[in-house]
Design brief:
17 helices; 3 domains; mainly alpha; 474 residues; elongated; two-stranded antiparallel sheet; binds zinc ion
């Protein structure tokens, strides 16, 4: 098939043979009787007209009449309902690659797919399977099915057929934001009311947006980020500043002249706060250091505390305060980081149990949406000496404040869901011995004694920390 030349109505693009066949099938179908079209010199249907042209007006009049016939109110967005209702096969063929995809909301969005791929350890493409096919094909045991139900925020089923039925009646039919149709609607510009490129090929035009989504997703999905104290907004912006700096600096660990990245002196994953206390490490030292720290990091954190800074999150303070002065060498520092990591994991487990049993309200007191209210810029940025750094905060407008805060809170709770799934699979922390006390805590929360519950929660966290210290520290 020769590429189509540019003419008045059509963009310069070759039509896949399947698409040619599809357009002929569509125009012959009685569902579109009376809808205006003409053929170009190459004999193909001129599929696209512009809304304002005379031919566009003819199509618009036809869609108006169709809506009326179907009892659909004539206003913006309602042509889409008509287009889906009358489509004879409910499958659209992609002009670009010829792939046939459902026009229903049956495919995972990029974000949903990223979670599915991560948690079910798959490597699927967005239009490879419908959501029903994914459940049917990859959720053969109850564990996988439960993971999937959690991803989709639906009740847990132990029968995949029932789960699929539920997904179709509650998510697909209601056009859930977690799912996407195989083609976007666009009447009356396109003859049958769908964009020529399917979801399979839209990525070429939408690449920027998709990769942005992915970036946000991977940045946001670690639960400890949201549930730790400190100004995460400032810390993230400052990390970005390190990232943008292309100059070479001497890495304090390996001594080589390299680009540097920001290493939190107290790792967030161990329960330390978001802060501006970064060490400039080269990326290989940064990643090999990973989640542990050394005697000199402990000393530096104690020094920062003595200067009046808060370095540790409230939930990890007990373990840190108990052991920080006992660290004599790197081996001690390593053992401390193991203890802090385990204690922090159990805190997140506890939070996910509380979330599961009581919802969001009580836990909101441990979040800090107020940090999302500013735009932040820097002056005098020098990665090797942050003491001269000037931080400039600008108030966001109220709409963006709300948007950022809502987003932060939503991600905080989603990350607890994610954490719980992973925690279950690895069974890292055994909270069974604390169950009676957790039950009491839940009762306090249920009876809305939030301040008492807060105090009680702190005693539970401290005794978990103490038990971890007793079995791990000599
Ligand atoms: Zn395609
Ligand atoms: Zn290095």
């Amino acid at each position: 098939m020769a590429p189509l030349k540019k003419d008045d109505d059509n963009i310069d693009r070759s039509w896949h043979p399947n698409y040619v066949e599809y357009t002929e099938m569509i125009i012959r179908n009685p569902a579109y009787r009376g809808l205006f079209y003409e053929r170009g010199k190459d004999g193909r249907v001129k599929w696209v007209v512009t809304g304002k042209s005379a031919n566009g007006q003819k199509r618009q009049a036809w869609w108006d009449a169709k809506c009326k016939e179907l009892g659909i109110p004539i206003k913006k967005g309602c042509y889409a309902i008509a287009a889906r209702t009358i489509h004879p096969t409910k499958r659209h063929v992609c002009q670009c690659c010829g792939k046939s995809l459902s026009i229903e909301y049956e495919y995972p969005t990029k974000n949903t797919l990223a979670k599915i791929n991560e948690l079910l350890e798959l490597d699927l493409e967005q239009t490879e399977y419908t959501i029903g096919e994914i459940i049917d094909t990859f959720c053969d045991n109850n564990e996988w099915l439960e993971v999937m139900c959690n991803i989709l925020h639906i009740p847990t089923f132990n029968d995949k057929k029932k789960a699929i039925d539920y997904v179709y009646s509650e998510l697909v039919a209601k056009q859930s934001g977690m799912l996407s149709p195989g083609a976007m609607s666009n009447p009356p510009d396109r003859f049958e009311g769908y964009h020529s490129d399917g979801l399979c090929c839209r990525e070429h035009t939408d690449k920027g947006r998709h990769s942005d989504n992915m970036k946000t997703y991977t940045q946001d999905r670690r639960a400890f980020e949201e549930w730790s104290d400190g100004d995460y907004n400032l810390a993230n912006r400052l990390m970005g500043e390190f990232h943008k700096d292309t100059n070479l600096y001497k890495c304090p660990i390996c001594g080589e002249m390299k680009r540097v990245s920001a290493d939190h002196i107290g790792p967030i994953s161990l329960g330390f706060c978001h802060s501006q206390f970064f060490a400039p490490l080269c990326s290989s030292c940064n990643s090999s250091k990973n989640n542990r720290f050394y005697k000199n990091d402990v000393d530096e954190l104690i020094r920062l505390e003595n200067e009046g800074n808060t370095v540790i999150s409230w939930h990890s303070k007990y373990v840190w305060d108990t052991l920080k002065n006992e660290v004599r060498n790197d081996a001690d520092a390593k053992r401390l980081s193991t203890i802090m990591s385990r204690s922090h994991q159990s805190v997140l487990s506890l939070f996910s149990i509380i979330y599961d049993k009581t919802g969001k309200e009580f836990l909101l007191r441990y979040l800090h949406p107020e940090y999302s209210m500013y735009d932040i810029r820097f002056q005098n940025f020098d990665p090797t000496d942050l003491s001269k750094l000037v931080v400039i905060r600008t108030d966001l407008d109220s709409k963006n404040k709300r948007k950022n805060q809502d987003r932060y809170v939503r991600i905080a709770f989603e990350s607890l869901d994610d954490f719980k799934r992973k925690d279950n699979r690895r069974t890292l922390i055994n909270l069974e011995p604390y169950e009676p006390r957790i039950d009491e805590l839940i009762q306090l929360i249920d009876s809305r004694k939030f301040d008492t519950a807060d105090k009680y929660l702190r005693t539970i966290i401290d005794s978990i920390g103490e038990d971890i210290i007793n079995v791990t520290w000599d």
